[in-house]
Amino acid sequence: MQDSHTSESTQSNIEEAIVSGILSARIRPGTRLSENQLASVFGVSRTRVREAMMRLETRGIVTVSPRRGWFVVEPSAEEAMTVYEARRAIESGLLRGMRALTHEGRTVLVSHLDEEKAAMAAGDRQRLTCLMGDFHIRIAELGGNPILVDILRDLTARTILISMLYQSEFHAVQSHEGHCRIFEAMAAGDFVKAAELSVEHLDEVETGLDLTTRPDPLSELRSSLSLPPKTMSSQPAGTRKTATSKEK
């Protein structure tokens, strides 16, 4: 029988694996997460898997459908706007509370920005998706508050799910330049400016989303059958979302 420490560790491993898969864009919105398969992969009982899923549900990462099982969330347009609103509040507040960027912190961020450049040069979109989210998590880690790190990690994962649903183009260069401006302000010791730039950066990202788009529940099947993606014009009248992204 597993002791409580081992059980908690197993649940944490399952949660970490799923969140990491989302952060690296390997796990997409709407992905079904089979209790049986996860139990086999991690070598645990379905009860342990279910406990991990329930914790992920409280974190807004997965949802359960009666008689169908667990699925990665597909954020609505309204949920997307609240996620960005939360990120603006947390990240700007975190930066305003910082007093100095240590030599170690500077090295971490410079190395990270170099990785973003390398991934752009290689055209590695999946790697870029992971790095773009990690930049914000690294800043939270430099702030030294583990609670904020956990919250921002979950919000970043949800942001990536939102991007996969509503972002028609991947603006890697724009995001990288936004990160560079935030870093430059931090390096200069102007954390008020860094906070303002973080809000501008998130505004730019959110404005690039098309929140009028309805996610296509058959997108993976269409792709596997080499069929063209469903367009807005093919949807019945009156079914389109009317929510719009935040205006600057």
From TrEMBL:
Molecular function per GO: DNA binding; DNA-binding transcription factor activity
Gene3D superfamilies: GntR ligand-binding domain-like, Winged helix-like DNA-binding domain superfamily/Winged helix DNA-binding domain
HTH gntR-type domain segment(s): 8-75
Keywords: DNA-binding, Transcription, Transcription regulation
One Pfam family hit: FCD
InterPro entries with a match to the protein in the record: GntR_C, TF_FadR/GntR_C, Tscrpt_reg_HTH_GntR, WH-like_DNA-bd_sf, WH_DNA-bd_sf
Comp. bias intervals (Low complexity): 215-229
Source superkingdom: Bacteria
Region (Disordered): 208-248
Record carries keyword DNA-binding: yes
UniProt keyword annotation of Transcription regulation present: yes
Protein name, entry field: GntR family transcriptional regulator protein
Species assigned in the record: Rhizobium gallicum bv. gallicum R602sp
